Amino acid sequence: MINASELKLTAVSPDVRRVAAQAVVIAVAQDKQGPRLLDSPLPKAETAALQDSLASLGVTGATDQVLRLPATDSLKAGVLVLSGVGRVEGSTPDAETLRRAAGSAARQLAGLSKVVFAFPTPTVELAAAVAEGIALGAYTYSNHRSKAPEKGPLTEGVVATAASAHKELPAALRRAAVIGRAVRGVRDLVNTAPNDLYPESFASEARNAVKPFPLKVTVLDDKRLEKDGYGGLMGVGKGSARPPRLVKIEYTPAKAARHLALVGKGITFDTGGISLKPPANMHHMKSDMAGAATVLGTILAIAELGLPVRTTAWLCLAENMPGGNAARPGDVFTMFGGKTVEILNTDAEGRLVMADGLVAASADKPDVVIDIATLTGAQMVALGRRTSGIMGEETVRDALVEAAAVSGESVWAMPLPEELRASLDSTVADLANAGDRNGGMMTAAVFLQEFVGEVDGNKIPWAHIDIAGPAFNDVAAYGYVPKDGTGSGLRTLVAYAERLAGK
Catalytic residue at 351? Predict the structure, then answer.
């Protein structure tokens, strides 16, 4: 099911007139005085003529505007493409602006094979941003089509950059390729139909995906989960004919100074259980496993990049169905580790499988635990469709926010108010699985916090990332983000791991 298309990324000098390609892309900024070409590789006379024609061509320089023109005689390309970057101060956009513009052009140029991106990239960092944008934007999903689409994704992106001879550029391009491939793999999993992707098949996908890398996989099936007392996974999954799985993936490089544990929510389809969801858009609930897909993609990228950080990934996989054996409101689950939870809402199931995963991850005594999940609709109420919420121990939370800023992903740090814990009190169990709906995103995180373990009497540093909105784009594509599965969160987690490794 993971069928992330291959993409070749290379670099050349800014003089692209001798580079054979199907198209050359030039950036156009949006100014008060009108559209403005940025760093045109064309001869002066052609650049001046094109600049004078932008307004009459309808070019504004707005983000996501991509216009194709016949190439001039000075280029060995058939098409000249103008890609809007939005408002820019000066002559050089920042990294995320370039990343989005490159991704938007790569996405909209599906059907072409080799394209040169002649954006203003005087540094390795900016060249890498363009390369990463290409790798993120060059994506289509066609696994369920009876015929391959006529316009497949771009297969080769060439970055024209003044840093083409810099010794650090090859590694930066390789990183961009690795990140892009991992994100596209996450998107493939999220976009897979739920009749094809269920706990057992997801576990098989994980086994297959790790084969090229120095990773160890352990899959706990339903019999083992029942025996070992994983009450959250078993309780959520017992309404489905497809039993749950817990997948542990271990990366243990030599001389790793830190140990990072990642826990991902993998509800392969969420009906809400007996607390049934409304039917409108329920098909989007195939994306409720995006956290687990992101954790899988992250550890694959960490291993491929060879980061010296011991990493353990936990994929908490179950299907939440309203079958005859499904959990009922009022049931009490005994979670892995012994805590009991009263079920007030069977649609608050993600936190139950994640609780089992957090306890299991804590048993290895990692230095940091991070969980990621499409956990609450309240995340979208609070932060919208594109911004993830990050909660937890302040040092980890703030470091993740910084990693997201470097990566270009939109996140916001949220608190964990002490008063929310009382709303999770139960009269019959240690706690309930649902509490105050006001601040529901934070209430869910407070629940998860109860299952983070201790080392030598101190709580393991932990953070929770809620990607309910950003993980699945149910509106129009934009920038390097396609419709449907997005792969949101992976770039932040890899950047965080790089910081742990001292990169």
Answer: yes
